[in-house]
Amino acid sequence: MAVSAQFARTDAVATSCATMPRISLVNPAAEAKSLQQASFHSCWKTGRRLCLHSGAKSASTSETVKPMTIAMTATMPPKADREVSGIYVPKETHKQVTHSILPERLEVIKSLDSWAEESLIPFLKPVEKCWQPQDHLPEPSSESFYEEVKELRARAANLPDDYLVVLVGDMITEEALPTYQTMLNTLDGTKDETGASLTPWGVWTRAWTAEENRHGDLLNKYLYLTGRVNMKAVEKTIQYLIGSGMDPQTENNPYLGFVYTSFQERATFISHGNTARHAKDLGDSKLATICGLIAADERRHEHAYCKIVEKLFEVDPDGAMQAFGDMMKKKIAMPAHLMYDGVDQNLFANFSMVAQRTGTYTARDYADILEHLVNKWNVAKVEGLSSEGRKAQEYVCTLAPRIRKLDERAQLKPKKTPKAGPFSWVFNREVQMW
Ligand SMILES: [Fe+2]
Ligand SMILES: [Fe+2]
């Protein structure tokens, strides 16, 4: 493991993670605008670096606080350990577990079909009401196409390299969508068994994928038109990433899988919301709208996945609690954690450090998401648990404060000298990582 990312912010603990209102499905432009104006603090100028350290002593007690690795930085750096017939294969870093769900819990999942039909499917948005990438790009059949491209390029001309690196990393993450659909279709009891399954879970997974597909498409086309990034390097990274897959440690288990997606959708909501606000700060209001629209989709998806876990807490509180504890113990690895561009063995870690420094996705966000989920699922109040369930409850309820304590302690450490490194995505120009 190359990097254990710790917590480096002394900022007041964000309290903006209270339950978000369900978003309107009728006016995407307004949604995007409201996101840009939301109460999030824009960290573009104040984002701080992530400190790295190996452990800390609690201030109030003498116990050793075990360092916690944040998955936004590389928990599993994609060292190119081997090639098979010239094909890159990422290193396996832990034992992969499969089909861990207990038979009685599989029955619980199977009993939720009609619930999913009534309560999950409505979170999808009809295609005719969805924005499409073309709504926010120069119209190629129009006479004004070249003029529109010129304007786009003028707006993007001032985007700094660190912003571009973060936006490219986010775009590449979105572009690895085949991996995420695959991941959902590994889950026992909810997978799309045929590719055209009519179960609500199959319908959900395909339609969710189709909605998500617009994200990478729009960001990719936009970045292409800016002329600011090395598209070939970006495209190679996407190909490597899809070829590598991901290992979220969800064990084909929908309890684990939906805890993971709940966390992950909120993480992307935060990240895209911040790239929207930063774009606005940097003078590219169209890009701000684009990122805001994507963030709004992520938030709607977050609500949907959270609803599934909420239902699991209702029908099987002990199983849901243990699943939540299990995923948080393993730490939530970001979906692009196996990112590689053919050059940089620590690409994901380096990208993550730029995201941290620019305040796009930070260690503090990780704690905030966890706390948000604890509150949303009313975890502290869940009763009737087994001893394993109670242990998991104690663990997840105390984890966010422990993360923040480490964060505060890390802030007391002397600042490291700034470090920069080249990114192929911006023609190997050096970008400050901390
Ligand atoms: Fe997305
Ligand atoms: Fe998403």
From TrEMBL:
Major localization listed first in the record, in broad terms: plastid
Keyword Membrane: no
UniProt binding sites for Fe cation 1: 174, 212, 215, 298
GO biological process: fatty acid biosynthetic process
GO molecular function: metal ion binding; oxidoreductase activity
One Pfam short name: FA_desaturase_2
UniProt key word Transmembrane helix: no
Compartments where found: Plastid, Chloroplast
Cofactor(s) recorded in Swiss-Prot or TrEMBL: Fe cation; Fe(2+)
Keywords, comma-separated and alphabetical: Chloroplast, Fatty acid biosynthesis, Fatty acid metabolism, Iron, Lipid biosynthesis, Lipid metabolism, Metal-binding, Oxidoreductase, Plastid, Transit peptide
Cofactor binding notes: Binds 2 iron ions per subunit.
GO cellular component, one term: chloroplast
InterPro entries according to UniProt: Fatty_acid_desaturase-2, Ferritin-like_SF, RNR-like
Residues the record lists as binding Fe cation 2: 212, 265, 298, 301
Assembly, per entry: Homodimer.
Similarity-based family: Belongs to the fatty acid desaturase type 2 family.
Annotated protein name in UniProt: Acyl-[acyl-carrier-protein] desaturase
